[in-house]
Amino acid sequence: VDSARARAAAEDAVIVVAVPLPAVDEVLRRIAEIAPRALLTDVVSVKSPVVAAVRRIAPTARYAGGHPMAGAAVSGWAAGSATLFEHASWVVTVEPDTEVATWRAVAELALVCGARVVPATAAEHDTAVARVSHLPHVLAAVLASAGAAGGPLALALAAGSFGDGTRVAGSRPELVLAMCEGNREQLLAALDDALGKLGVASTGSLGATVRSGNEGRAALTRVQRGQRTLAKLDLTAADALDQLAELGRRGGWITGFDGDTALAELPEIPA
Amino acid sequence: VDSARARAAAEDAVIVVAVPLPAVDEVLRRIAEIAPRALLTDVVSVKSPVVAAVRRIAPTARYAGGHPMAGAAVSGWAAGSATLFEHASWVVTVEPDTEVATWRAVAELALVCGARVVPATAAEHDTAVARVSHLPHVLAAVLASAGAAGGPLALALAAGSFGDGTRVAGSRPELVLAMCEGNREQLLAALDDALGKLGVASTGSLGATVRSGNEGRAALTRVQRGQRTLAKLDLTAADALDQLAELGRRGGWITGFDGDTALAELPEIPA
């Protein structure tokens, strides 16, 4: 592995750190020794702790964090797939100290894997995934637990709504917990929000909750399957990083590069 | 319609009340006038209010309530399907004053439609569906609303767990609210339970919530797709109604009749 890192340094290849969060520090220490100026990314599902670790342990590395949002319920070598990243969203982080050339090198890696590249700050990424990746696992667990508390009769009567709502509760608890623990602070904020909304529903304003949920679901459909606008970003602009972050904030992504121009798509969201 | 009711009375046919809950009283008043001893059932998704209305308005009718647990997101004549009830669970209510012959006549109607018949008291039915039909809609709304509050970036990053968890939030709000309002008291109890579990998750015991949810999901799989035991119930027994209710309580259902014997299946649940 050390010889691979040395070769990466010699060839200026992108080093991809693909280990669980608790193992990141140790890997970064080896990289800082052998390839301190390496082009560096990672695929950890939470970004702020990795950005902080790189600043602390490998501060001279040319780093942009990554999170390919693809996966399967199965794991191990046999679960490998050459098409895993096709059409997936792959977040590449944009921080004030990110170099545009570094960001682009990592984005190009994601693009050749078939993914679309979503630029976001580490903090915005972590806030977003707390709501759309981690909160769904907690609510699925709550629903599965509350349903099972109804006994065999309730489970025998469960249909599509309960089956869909509890599907990810079938995930391995240790994997779910590791994912949630890594993003603890943001998840707690999302849980507080969900608790507030559920509390409102239980104290007489069920209509507001149900209508707000219906609007949220419609917004999901618009962002994911609605009309899209094409856009171009000039990567030589002084505020290129800000423009990338703003594109991500608006639900957009990068589909490729043409010279110094990043080609983008973004959903048309009615005002 | 009145002539149909008169003909039903003459032929001792089963009258099926298939109107929304707010319209039930008026229909029962007409039935009480024209066919006071009618064989009677209904297909309203909540059972205690209908049982109470029958006792009040049509007390001499031979009634067993029904709830065919099938449906689609579309409605109207064009959404009709001859196979809608195949393999669906169809609850037929068992109350202390239910006559076994009445219960069987309604159960046979469900069986010829291709459904399996789940016996349950109206109260137990309402408690169960609050947890597995109504609570899923509220939690889906909470999740969709909390996700959309994360803005377009969050929605662009949403994947399978968020999509599954919010699917029923796409249902028409007025239909969801009508369904929930009809079972308000039981739903509030289920919401309290969910609030408690979510509160536990947000105050440091996420592991307990996630593991309990994983066990709940495994219990669902066992009840719905696990090994089944065959059983027979003697409908001439003095406690036949209690036996039917107990079968339902254990997650079992009736698949047919052989003379005075009801043929049952029930899930094998490990102790």
Short description:
Two copies of one chain form a homodimer. With 271 residues, the first copy, chain A, is α/β, with parallel strands linked by helices. Chain A contains eleven helices and nine strands.
Structure characterization notes:
The structure is a homodimer of 271-residue chains. The model of chain A has no long low-confidence stretch (mean pLDDT 93). Chain A is globular and about 65 Å long. Chain A is of the alpha/beta class and 271 residues long. In chain A, strand 8 and strand 9 (261-267) form a beta hairpin. Chain A is 53% helix and 16% strand. In chain A, the strands form 3 sheets. In chain A, strands 1-2-3 form a 3-stranded parallel β-sheet. The interface between A and B is large, with 94 and 94 residues.
Brief descriptors of the model:
homodimer; 271 residues; alpha/beta; three-stranded parallel sheet; three-stranded mixed sheet; 9 strands; globular
